[in-house]
Specification:
The structure is a single chain. The protein is mainly α. The chain has two domains: 100 residues, Multidrug-efflux Transporter Regulator, Chain: A, Domain 2 (Orthogonal Bundle), CATH 1.10.1660.10; 144 residues, no CATH class. The chain is 67% helix and 2% strand. The protein contains 13 helices and two strands, in the order H-H-H-H-H-H-H-H-H-H-H-H-H-E-E. A two-stranded antiparallel sheet has the order 1-2. A hairpin with a 5-residue loop joins strand 1 and strand 2. Helix 1 crosses helix 3. The chain is elongated.
Length: 254
């Protein structure tokens, strides 16, 4: 007769595992002997080894007792069912691994390839990483809401980057993030932006507009994260433009 420690050693498990199987009703607890110890026979060792083998194979403990008492045909059918479940879990785990791999790649998890290429282009022309990160977060929102428009926006933005004035404006805007709300340089940056807007053909304005609710969300991020945002918007309005994400020409220039 074996103590619980000896039983665990024979079966290659821990005492804690034996007690867990007792609690689950998988392994009957023998009566205590006159010394107050539980003693296990060879049958308990065999049953524990079978439980451990099934558990190690991925069989849920909720089904172990069913299989221990099953006939040959029933056992084979149950094993086939468990094997199908395990193969499905493996496929799902593989999909999780693929998603994790994309996450490790950064922007490619939540953005289409054209947007990732555009962000790399921003970095290549010297746009600071802080500004690139802001662009990335904005385009993630756009891609989630209107994915069918992303190709158009990426073509437009990539074409704009060919202009050195646009590249310089990006670098200026990256600096704006760190300026105080009343910094007079904000008016200069707003003027540079207005100069670029003056070059946009009138027929192109409607094509560039985002849905109003999405534009409002992006505007709120700009206003909350950039101390000088409101001064920039006021300066733009003086030049005849309104808004930030969906910048619109005003009918009159103040």
């Amino acid at each position: 007769m074996l103590t619980i420690s000896q039983l665990a050693a024979y079966a290659g498990v821990t005492v804690r595992t034996v007690r867990h199987y007792h609690a689950k009703g998988l392994l009957p607890e023998p009566e205590r002997d006159h010394s107050g110890y539980r003693r296990y026979d060879a049958g308990a060792v065999v049953r524990l080894v079978r439980i451990r083998t099934l558990a190690d194979a991925g069989v849920p403990l909720s089904r172990v007792e069913e299989l221990l008492g099953a006939g040959e045909a029933e056992f084979a059918a149950a094993v086939d069912d468990i094997d199908r479940r395990l193969r499905a879990e493996i496929r799902e785990r593989q999909r999780h691994r693929e998603r994790i791999a994309r996450l490790a790649a950064g922007e490619s998890l939540a953005l289409p390839p054209a947007a990732v290429t555009y962000l790399e282009r921003l970095r290549a022309v010297g746009v600071p990483e802080e500004m690139v990160a802001a662009e990335r977060d904005a385009w993630i929102l756009v891609a989630a809401q209107i994915p069918d428009r992303m190709a158009f926006y990426m073509d437009m933005k990539t074409a704009q980057l060919e202009d050195e004035h646009v590249r310089e404006l990006y670098r200026e805007l990256a600096e704006v993030i760190r300026w105080d709300a009343d910094d007079p340089r904000l008016d200069v940056v707003a003027g540079d932006l207005a100069d670029q807007l003056d070059q946009v053909p009138p027929e192109s304005w409607g094509e560039q507009m985002l849905p109003a609710d999405l534009a409002d969300l992006l505007d709120s991020v700009f206003l909350a994260s950039v101390p000088g945002a409101r001064r920039v918007l006021r300066a733009l309005e003086r030049r005849g433009y309104e808004g930030w994400t969906n910048i619109r020409r005003l009918d009159r220039v103040g």
